Amino acid sequence: MRGVNADSQRVTSTTARRLAVPAGILAAVAGAFAYVGAVDPNEPGHYPACPLLRYTGLYCPGCGGLRSAHAVVHGDFQAALQDNALAVLAYLGFAALWTVWVVRVARGRPVRVDLTSVQLWAAGALLLVFTVVRNLPVGGWLHP
Questions:
Q1: Looking at residue 100, what is its pLDDT?
Q2: Could you give the percent of the chain with pLDDT greater than 70?
């Protein structure tokens, strides 16, 4: 019976070691969201201004991201989407990828993300289109 207990402890120890990196990433992201949730980016002086917005008056793809994260932390998803819809999609994408990562690591399977050049170009095009549209008069609903 002693061998069975040792084997289960070894499996538990190995699984815990494999889950250490995803747990650390989750802790860092949760800490960042907690900070942004506690320190309101809507009040001036807490965070640096976007240099692109400051010097050109144009919104970058990240403008409104902190306000969006603040709204998500406080459960105001409509405000989060209004502040930066693309950031909300990125938060959801991170949550999905992190969950897949944890499940695969817990099962002892390798984790690989192989993005093709087409997928990378598509992501870049999405960022570019989002940036251009949010700076046009017709894209006023995408302003933070």
A1: 93
A2: 92
pTM score above 0.90 = no
The rounded distance, in Å, linking the Cα atoms of 74 and 69 is: 9
> Do 73 and 32 touch, CB atoms closer than 8 A?
no
Buried b vs exposed e over 70-100: b needs ≥16 C-beta within 10 Å? bbbeeeeeeebbbbbbbbbeebeeeeeeeee
% helix, strand, coil for the chain, step of 5:
75, 0, 25
Distance CA 129, CA 25 (A): 30
Residue labelled with tokens 């699984």: 15
pLDDT surpasses 90 at 65: yes
- The 10s digit of each residue's pLDDT in 80-122 is 999 999 999 999 999 999 999 999 998 888 888 889 999 999 9
Distance CA 137, CA 117 (A): 32
Looking at residue 92, the DSSP 8-state letter turns out to be H
- In this structure, are residues 74 and 37 in contact, taking their beta carbons and an 8 Å threshold? yes
